[in-house]
Design a protein that fits this description.
Number of strands: 6
Order of helices and strands: EHEHHEHEHEEHH
Helix content: 25-40%
Structural class: alpha/beta
Strand content: 5-15%
Number of helices: 7
Low-confidence stretches: none
Largest sheet: 6 strands, parallel
Shape: globular
Distance between the termini: 29 Å
Radius of gyration: 19 Å
Mean pLDDT: 96
Length: 259
């Protein structure tokens, strides 16, 4: 297995850093190849601007179209091109980050904004009466899997079905479905550590054991059963889920998960 770890935390002595290091050692010991994108250590530029697209930047800037032209011409900035190459190299992508304000840190969102360019991660495939582009189960990154490893400060009950923060599945849905599944990546159930603000050294052995177990069972873990866009579940071009396909009483994000 070729694993890319995209890591986003500013503190080298943090729990997230320890989880990243443990992932590297565990996977390498198991015989896998590992690369790491340590975004803070790389001083990753998080904002999209015209400099990303060089001579292909228009005025006014059109981020989608300009990024596609630069990608097609091979003139994206070297940092973006390098991350795209890592994604194409990998067959497993692990994202290691803390949950800040109900989502990923800004530097990681900026990595997505800049690396997932038009024609690389979206805007591919034909549009006709039965197909609406290659996305949600198809796309340029199909054949890869991803796992979110997330730390949350609050206790697990706050992120349960009736928890005040909302179910963790809902909070991560925009990342799982909208960022990763969109270009075809299969998404594994997340590894979430709760109550991390209150953890002590006594908790670390159990945390490490649980994380290693997840890492060593990646190949046998079933991905989240998201519905594929172009395989009969949705009306095209409205992209509404067809009547009668949802389990009784299911609404919201859950509609887009089979079973």
């Amino acid at each position: 297995m070729k694993a890319l770890i995209v890591y986003a935390h500013p503190e080298p002595k943090s729990l997230n850093s320890s989880l990243k290091d443990l992932a590297v050692s565990t996977l390498e010991t198991a015989g896998h190849e590992v690369r790491v994108s340590d975004l803070y250590a790389m001083n990753w530029k998080a904002v999209v601007d015209a400099a990303d697209y060089g001579p292909h930047a228009s005025s006014p800037l059109k981020v989608a179209l300009d990024s596609g032209r630069a990608f097609d011409a091979g003139t994206l900035t070297p940092d973006v091109a390098a991350e795209q190459e890592k994604l194409l190299w990998a067959d497993m992508i692990i994202f290691q980050f803390p949950l800040w304000w109900y989502t990923m840190p800004a530097i990681l969102k900026g990595w997505v904004d800049r690396v997932f360019t038009y024609h690389f991660a979206y805007g591919v495939g034909e549009h006709n009466d039965t197909k609406y582009g290659e996305r949600f189960g198809e796309g340029t990154l199909a054949g890869r899997k991803a796992l979110l490893s997330v730390t949350a400060g609050g206790p697990e009950s706050h992120y349960a079905a009736r928890g005040i923060n909302g179910p963790i599945e809902d909070l991560l849905f925009p990342i799982h479905h909208g960022i990763l599944y969109y270009p075809g990546i299969e998404v594994l159930p997340p590894f979430v550590l709760y109550g991390t603000d209150r953890m002590t050294g006594e908790d670390h052995p159990d945390v490490a054991k649980a994380w290693q177990q997840r890492l060593l069972t990646l190949d046998s873990t079933e991905p989240i059963a998201f519905r594929r866009q172009n395989f009969g579940d949705y009306e095209i071009p409205s992209l509404q889920l067809k009547e009668g396909l949802e389990p009784s009483g299911r609404t919201g994000f859950g509609l887009h998960v089979r079973g």
